[in-house]
Every structure is written in C-alpha cells, then in structure tokens.
Design goal:
Helix content of chain B: over 70%
Oligomer: heterodimer
Radius of gyration of chain A: 25 Å
Strand order of the largest sheet of chain B: 1-2
Number of strands of chain B: 2
Shape of chain B: globular
Number of domains of chain A: 3
Strand content of chain A: 15-25%
Number of helices of chain B: 14
Structural class of chain B: mainly alpha
Largest sheet of chain B: 2 strands, antiparallel
Largest interface: A-B, 34 and 21 residues
Strand content of chain B: under 5%
CATH superfamily of the largest domain in chain A: P-loop containing nucleotide triphosphate hydrolases
Number of strands of chain A: 24
Order of helices and strands of chain B: HHHHHHEEHHHHHHHH
Distance between the termini of chain A: 70 Å
CATH topology of the largest domain in chain A: Rossmann fold
CATH class of the largest domain in chain A: Alpha Beta
Number of helices of chain A: 18
Structural class of chain A: alpha/beta
Amino acid sequence: MAAAAETVVSQAEPEVLLAGHGITKRFGSVVANDDVSVELRPGRILALLGENGAGKSTLVNVLFGLHRPDAGQVVIADENVELSSPHDAIARGVGMVHQHFQLVPPMSVVRNIVLGAEPRKLGMIDVAQARRRVMELADRFGLHVDPDAAVEDLPVGAQQRVEILKALYRDARVLIADEPTAVLTPQETDHLLGVLRGLTDQGVGIVFITHKLREVMAAADDIVVLREGRVVGTTTPAQTSEAALAELMVGRAVDLHGDRFESGATGVGSAVSTAAAPSDEEPTAEAGERPVVLDIAGLCTDDDRGQRAVDELSLAVSAGEIVGVAGVEGNGQRELVEAITGLRHATAGTVSISDRDASGARPRQVTVIGVGHIPEDRAKHGLIGSYSVADNSVLNRYFRRPFAAGGMLRRDRIDSHARDVVATFDVRTPDVDSPADSLSGGNKQKLIVGREFSDDIDLLIAAQPTRGIDIGAIEFIWRRIRERRDEGTAVLLVSAELDEVLALSDRVAVMYEGRIVATVDPRTATREEIGLLMAGAAPGAASPAADG
Amino acid sequence: MPLVSVVLGLVLGAVLIAVQGHSVTSAYGALVLGGAGDADALLRTLQKATPLVFGGLAVAFAFKAGLFNIGGQGQLLVGAAFAAGVGFGLEGLPLVVHLPLALLVGAAAGAAWGAIAGVLKATSGAHEVIVTIMLNFVAGNLTDWLAANPWQDRSGSNIIARTPLVQPSAEIPTWGWLPAGFVLAALVAFACWFVLERTTYGFEVRSVGANRHAAHYAGISVGWIMASTMAVAGLLAGLGGAIESLGVDGRFEAGVNVGLGFEGITIALLARTNPIAVIPAGLLVGLMEAGAAKMQFESGVAPEIIDVIQALILLFVAAPLIVRWLLRLRDRPDAPDRRLTLGAGWGR
C-alpha cells in the first residue's frame, strides 16, 4: 500500500495513477492481451498506439473494469485493485471518453454532465448548483461549452468536451480517451490536443488511444506500441520518429505516400509500395482522351435541414483516373455523394454514368449500372452490424445471380463469395458467419471495400474510405484503389484528409460551399494553396487550375 | 432465457397457489391433465394454441422489419368475420373450393387491415403502434355491426349478434385429437421462417429491421418493405381468425374472439420473435388455457392464476435483469446475450 511509503512527492499525490502489470486477456482461443504492462504517471499523456485489433481497446477495457483480466494486476493510485465493473474504476477516479459518445442527445449539456450524479435539494435536482459546478469545471480546464445547449445541437468537438467534463465532474484523475480524434476535423483535433495538455498541467493523467502517428508525436509524453496483443515498444516522441513507430505498429516498413511522391521527403524506410505505378507522365492529358464515366452537370441538392448543400456543381471523372474532392467537412461533400448514389434527391441538374442518365436514379439502379460505393458512415450505411460477414458481403447485391435465383438466397454461393472477399481483402475474422459487429473498424472497412470491388464496376465512389482505421489497412485500401484505377475504373474520392486526397488523386477538385471552386494538379499545387481554396479564397489566388 | 422465465413464472405461480392454501401438485397436475391428459384435452390445447401461433407470427414477422404490430386483434377479427361470411354465405360449393376460398378471404381481409397501417407508415411516417391500436377499435366495431346486422343469424328466435353456422363444405376438419387448423399453423410457422431466412424478400425484411439506413443504401425500398410486411402480418393474424371461425366456433360471433389477438404479443416475446419457436410458445400457453378449467374443478384454484402466471412469464422474458437478479447471475459484459429490444419501433 502506498500509504506506508513516505514519499517526497506532495502529500496525496500517487506515484502511479493507473497501471496494468502483466495483463492477459483471452476471448475464446484469441489472446487479445498477452502479458501487457503499462504505467501512467501524473501529468503525463500515455499514447497507446496500434492497429485495429492490436488489443488497445481490450487493454483499456480491462483497466476500466469492463473486462476482467485472466492474469495480471490492475493498479489505480498506487493500489492493487480488483475491478468488477466500471463503477469501481469511476469511484477510484478513472474516467473514460468513449469513441461513441455516451450522451443523451435531447438533454442539455449540464444535465448530461451531472446525469447519475446529480446534486440534490429536497429530493429534486439542484439545477442551479449543477450548472455552477459545471461552469467552474469548464473554466478551470478551459473546456468551453454552452451549458444550456441541447447536446444534439452541438458539433462533434463540443460533444466530446461534454464527455470530458462528465469524467472530470466525477473527479477523474485519469482520463482514458478511446480514439478521440477519429471523429474530429483537423481544427478540432488541434483544439483537443491543447485541452488534453491543459488537463495534464493540473495533474490529470491521460491514456490516449490512437493510430494517428502525427498526433502521437505531437501530444504524447510516453508511447506504448501494441501489436497482436503484445507490447512491442515503449518509447517517447523524442526517441522515435513517425516512420519507426509505423514500422513497430505494422511489424514491417510501410509506405504511406505511395507512388505519387518521392519517399525521401518523409524518411519512411524501405518502402513496400506495390501498386504497379502507372507511367506518371502527363496523366491528366491522358485522362482527357479516356471516356468520361461520371458526368455531373449543374447538380443541386439540399441537406437534411433543407438548406442548399450542393449548388450547381459540375464535375467529370474519366475512366482510369482518380479525382479527389478536397474540402473542409460540411461543404456539401456528403450530399454530393448521396445525390450521385441515389440516397438523396437532387433538386436540379443531371448525373450521367457510363453515358446513361442516372439523374434521380434509386440506389439499386445506380448499383446495377456498375457503381461501387464506399459510404462515408460504415456503421450507418455500409454494414448491418448484426448480419454475418457473409450477408454483408452481398448486402447490396444479394438479389443478383449467383447469390439468388428465383427469389431464393443461395447460401452456398454467398458463403463462398464471402470467403473470397475475406481472403482477397485480408479481412480478419474467425469465419464468415461471425457478425460484422465483431470485426475491428479496419476490417469492417476492408469488408466493405472488398464487397464493392468484387463486382464489375466502372465507377467507384469512395467517401472517407480510410476514416478511423489503422495504417496497415489504409495502405491496403489505397493500394486497392490505385489498382482499380490502373485497370480503368473511374474513381471519385471524397476525403476530409488532405493527405489522402493528395496521395491518391490524379486531379484534385476543391469544394467550398457546395461548389467546386478550383481543380488543381496535386503534383504542382502546395498544401497551402489548396488550404486557401478550401477556406474559400478566390481561385485566382491559387495556382492556375489544371482542368481536365 | 425464455425457458428460465417459464420455470420462474411457474414457481411463483406455485407460491401463489400455496399461499391460498391449495395443493400445488394437485393444481398443476390437473392443469397438465386438463391440457394433455387425454384426446379431448389435447384437442382443446391444440385448438387454443392455433390462434395463438398465428397471432404470435403476426407480431414476430412484423418485428423482423422493426415494426411493432399491436393490431393482431383487429386483423384477427376481420379475418374471422369475413371467413365466416364466405363460409355461411356461399352454398353448393365443394369442400376443396369452399374451404380454401373462405380461408383466403379471411387472410386477405387481415392482410388489408394490416396493410393500412403499413402504407400509412411508409407514406406519412404515422407510427404503426398508434395506427394499429386505433384500427383494432375500428375492426371491433365493424365486425360487431356485421354480426348484428347484415350477416346476423335470423333463424328461430336468435337475437345474439352472430352469423349463421358455416356450411359443412367450409368447415375445417379435425382428425381425432388433431385439428387441421393447428397443422396449418405449424406449417405456416415453418413457411415464415423459410421466407425470412432463405428468400431475398426475407433478407430485405430483416435488413430494414436491423438497419434501415443500410437497407436503403443496399437498394431496398424501405417503404415497400414496411407496407408489405404489415400486410403479411395482417394476413397471418387474419388466417388465425378464419381458422377460429371455420374450425372451432363454426361461425363468427361478436365479442367471442376478444383478446386473442393481443396474446400474440406474449407468444412472440416468449419465442423471442423466432417463427419456429412460436409453435412451442403457443402450445405452452394453449395448454395452460385448456387445462385451467380442470384445475379449478379439481383443486379449487381460480383459473385467473393462469393469467397471472402468463403475465409473470412475460415480465421475466421482457426484463432479463430481474431474472438475473433473482438467480444471482453475474452480468457478463464479455458475452452480452442478444437482448430483445422492442423499443426499436419507436421514434423513427
């Protein structure tokens, strides 16, 4: 017990806020954590880095009392503890910010924060006191939110601050943040990293799960890299580099920049880029001679609130080219994709795909024309979580031969197709009968990509194809998209990650307030120029558009 | 878990019987004998179980599409009334034509009744729970009126609101202790399972129920599926009503079938909306209802205890946490069982 040790550290300050020693956790025959040890000290940010399925979530779930370890010891504030539920962890000052927020959308910020621990007066919730305490906390930690706003009206970044406040309101000394930046825009991410640093200045310790190397290098004090359930490296940003971390995570050198850029700029070691690089000479000029597959003219559509989201947009994508749409999220990209794929009603304009009029087509018709669609929200649109991997592998093609005949599903064909997709796209799953929900994020995405690629498509629409997934899977999916392009498929790529757009695209269309404000050549345009265009600067200010 | 709930319900029922000073063994013994002790008892049980199975299927099928069909009662009533109408109204037809026709008309009436709620849901978003509850009242009044006015039995001095007996050519046969209606119910239950699990239509229905947005992305017409699923649900309940008129009562009588449709909700829950499990669930409740009279006769226990036991079973099925607490089962977050969420129909 720590009480026995007379330490020189300030009175109640524990030496170790949270630790796991030799944690082992098995699920059936799968060893999710194998003798994993981590330690978090006050005022520090510990980054847990690893691919999806590396055991990061299992580890923090053990530390938070959601799972019981099969072996090993959890330590909170210098004390060996047995956690039987998250309540035990919360009572000892451990808070968790889940990737999927645990908030009640219609309730106010204050009520969400105090929910379950409300200050009471005469058996009623003392709203005034609750509000005061929340405001104090928000001021003290620099977490600015409108206390009376309904949570559902807040942007994602503000909702996340509410989650953090919720933990702090329960006197958390340790904050576990599970992929907190996965849902944030770059600006929100920067803000969050600042907030986390502010928390550590007040003695809070933070466990930060991520697979984004840039954030780890920018924000972490200590880094623990997990792979296949084991700790494969413990380091600090000063002692390592992005490339070295990437190698540790994946277990081999990775190439994040593909065939577009010379690798020297990033210092990534022996690159294993595999996609047969197309002759890089004048791809845009060649594209002009290829047939136009997707032709959008004067397209208009509204967002969910009935506001004009896409405004007389015109864009063409030819066979064998990747056109990347860059833009700050919320400038109509989602609505554009939904209007093309039939998920949203276009109010004006035309869409033609492979010389066929697809204006106002329904999703089924768009699929049948020969369009693959990797949807932005894989949980909402891309998969049915309770369905098996096999059923999801034919989710939008179940009705066609060979998967169905005469209105009957042909299980054997569906299963063998699913096994093909799983093998070809390296989807890590025990079998094709497992529910899709049991897969990690990266494997879910590979399943979707595999499904969309397994059909004979002329056009691929990829919306945020690598959001929230690990480097190994990103590399894999990028390679597949490039291969598809090289085989002659037209690709429309929409991504909030400028790096992704730049790495993959042959042409970059910059979208701002529902319009394409410029089309630039990614080989000549700089990040700054594109950034200015994304922020709404007049196109003339940037380099001349390399229109195809 | 449903089995545990049944056992717990029976155990608590036993406590209630004992508290009243009756013998538990003689009460439950009489219940089983009254429900399965001889051919007559078995026949009663199977007859009671038949509309329960259909009512359970009507709820379970709709639930697969994420719809909560509270309208089994109304759908059953119109099915029963219109099947009886065809059953007594048409004369001179051979059995092979008359009986299927009467069943078909009853099923179609139920389907139409269910479709109203489905179409309203698909086109205007009107919540199916509200609409089906209201349609239950409409169906009740409509069939009461039919039985009291145009279709009333005018023979002799009859003043009861009921139709004449159906023609022999429209009667559903009974083979010894086995009513043909129950055989049909079991076949239809298997057919429901087959449709849901093995056909593209079933894939669409389940997709809409599991994730409406993904179903839309997959090119499934969500509106059509909701409308057609409610029609199928209505058809199932209507068929149950038709069999009640043609195979058990021999006619349609106002007020006789009240409540039968609602028990389908109990059955569907007990079966965890699995169409095949609806058969044993219907048999269990059917047996309790069939044996209740003998239990009262032999041990003096009020037959209402059956309703209490049913309610307890339903409570335990719907609230697994209570069962865990009662049995001191540790909630294992590692292996969460698939909870049945009936709230899925709300708020969409």
